[in-house]
Amino acid sequence: MNPMSKKRVLIVKLGGSIVTLKHLGRPAIRRAHASKIASVLKKQYDSKKHSLILIHGAGSFGHLHAHRHGLALGTKDQPQKTFRAVENQALDARLNAELTTLFVKAGLPVVGLPTRTIAKNNTGKLSSLDTQSIESALSVGAIPLLHGDMVFDTTWGLSVCSGDVLVPELAHRFSAESVFFASDVDGIYTKDPHQYRDAILIQETTLEEISRGTIQMGKSHNIDVTGGLSKKFSLFHKMPSLKEIHLFNGLKPKNFSSIFDQRKFFGTTIVVKK
Known about the structure:
By secondary structure, the protein is α/β, with parallel strands linked by helices. The protein is about 30% helix and about 25% strand.
């Protein structure tokens, strides 16, 4: 039995564009904004009612670095790429540590958990994830904060483990009914709303429609070495507990209250099962 079954499990992915300034082309944290997000979460979070797991993207830290040094296909046996991969890990660790500090200062019991210490890939795909540390944190009312990272790969040396991949895996492991993705737009659009004024917000769709290609989703305007969110939706199939996937604008701090009260939700809801 899931040790968290008596609580509502909430899994939230903070996109790299939410916690960092991706457009600057150098590592930069949205400190003031992250603190506002933490304040909203602090008002709503109740450790007696909720088991909250946070995952953040690598943004202007790891993502840009991985793209710049061609790490998407792993390091294999290239010493120079191995150095770049561990350099990438250091960037990710710095971002995770600083975000953890900001959340703790806001009064949230957040504990940073480096993904590379609990996850392993094989040919660029997640092959194992040790959740004991996550379970331990949740059991005492703490909030684990994981992140996209360079992890060891049994075939490719080191490769990218995206936060978008961690979300469905954790949703499955902890029997979550809903998961949330916070990005820099209101949800899924027919086109990139940053580039097209006639882009239309898709407020509700189904996982089946996305799988069939019935829904045409716009591509991200930001660099994403893991292939973009649309490629990750297939990982949400065949989860008995999961009912909905929610995507919302994380640049509006008040929107984070909808994680706890979905009656206030504005964005895109992907119905997994009714």
